[in-house]
Known about the structure:
Chain A is of the alpha+beta class. Helices cover about 30% and strands about 15% of the residues of chain A.
Amino acid sequence: MSSENKDFNKTKAFLIDMTKCTGCRGCQVACKQWNQLGAEKTEFFTGEGYQNPPLMSEYTFTRIKFRDYEKNGQNEFAFYKEMCMHCNEPACASVCPVGAFKKTKEGPVTYDADRCIGCRFCMVACPFGVPKYEWSKALPLVRKCTGCYSRVKEGLKPACATTCVSAITYGNREDMIKEANKRIAARPEKYLKKLYGSEEAGGTSVIYLTALPFDELGFKPVTKRPLPSYTWQALRLVPGIFLTVGSSLSLLSWFNHRKERIAKEEEMRKSGATPKEES
Amino acid sequence: MTAAKIIANEIKGYHRFVQFLIVLVALGALASLARFVFGLGVTTNLNDTFPWGLWISFDVVTAVPLAAGAFTLGAIVHCFHIKKLEPLVRPAIVTGFLGYSLVCVGLLLDLGQPQRCWHTMVYWNPHSPMFEVSMCIAAYTTVLFLEFLSPVCEKFGYHVPLRLLRTIEMPLVIAAASISTLHQSSLGTFFLIAVDKLHSLWYNPLLPLLFWLSAMCAGISIIIVEATMSHKYMGQPDEGELLETLAKILPWVITVYLSVKIFSLVALTQGPLFNRPGLLVLFAVEVLCGVILPLVMLMSRNVRESSRLRATAAWLVIAGVILNRFNVSMFGMEAPGTFYYPSFLESVVTIGIIAAHILFFVLIAKYFPIFEHHPETVDYSIPDHFRKNEKGHAHGAAKA
């Protein structure tokens, strides 16, 4: 991967405490405002539950997923804020043929629309299903949460983190993980004793705390190994294979042709003829 | 008579089937126009869950191994020096050149921003299998074009370029084989990133190697099928004896492919294999009918000697490879409960591309010396403008 620094402790990260989320969806609105995203015509209950819009899309970079469950005979809501995870070693950046995605040193994974050729490999590669396509356009591009890089670079917090009154904390990744573990230690009865994002896909810049198990909330089960390493273990062999195949075939054909040439010369010597014009 | 009239008259003289192909190609062209006018979202069944559909699965991931005949045969004939197979090389090169050109067409239709396709050449990302494949496809299409120039130059009697082409023949063959090795396998690398998406029946770290091996199986089988059909329907010379030799080589390649496949399935696969009955059936059909059955068939001398049975076995191999590519790039990638099927327009475009392939092949065979290229019968010599050969350069003969 192109990420020079393997130390992601100082990159900026979100700590999203889903137990503190009230489902107000202020983050969705703030995201749309900052990124100038169009509205979507939606209907209630087209998705799994109360969430609206039903899915992330070219117009929706983040959304709150609602899950109903029962606690002590009472109906309760649990939430999951779906957004780009800003992986430490992003799959999208590794597969993009033109390098349109970049893991910035500040933490957000940015997308350069001027480079993108629209091949959608990032969408196939992303384990979280984040990049979305402008299906409405004749010449579409990819859209995704940029972690409000334009704000972060100037020292501001991302739009959703600024708006959120309770659940989102933004800061250095190591501090966020420390803080998360502190909260689990302080209220062990309240939290699931696991963090989502500390190791998923090799570590991400979004760390989640939840009360319910991850799969029940709609978090995707994801490998702990950085995804780019899966393709790199094959791709790193490319120059070697090229040279090996090329040179062994060259040698092989040189030998075979030499054999033929010698046989021909032998034949000519035997027949005593002068080498005549040949093909 | 105007040029248009001459062409119209010429087309009127074609066989019904060829005219039908022209109609299909025209429909495909219209459908691809619709893709640019109305956009990908409206004309295809692609969406954020299925970003890649028929155009990637067939026009790219399947069409590339189907065009592998050129590099496989080139290496067999020129590097392993099984010279007698040479008459089959030219049709294979034409198929390869057409195949790759049409892969480029399919790829451009599928790209969101086809006008930016040159970006891959400028903004390098060596970590991307897609970058590697697009560089290779560009390079290999050029190589195939150069190899394809030989019959064109022969047709028009351009002797100097012919001489040049003959000098670089061996480097081209070797470049073709090495470049093909890279991108045939890298197409498999594409799906290594789909760690938790591609089903473990197909997902394993040796996927690139499997793609390369099966591409060679497909390449050899395509040559067999093509030569059999062009003998049967186009009245081209019967190459039965040569195809028999190929049919002897083919089971060896299939055996290697099958052993690697079994090894990777048993030793390298992580995750459950038997949790999706539908996929299990697809996998069983792919391996039993597309690999094992033709392997068993080709081991019998009777099959190899019978033109009909040999072609049947080759068809089975091809079907197996096609199903394998669809399993990897489409069926195996679908999450449980979701389903993608191509839209009408997507299908029309792909049918148009297949029709274009057959059409151009028939037309090229009609107008250029493709099948007549029997080295023992064709006069190879170049007019000796430079009076080089008269002095008796024996070593000049080795290359030819």
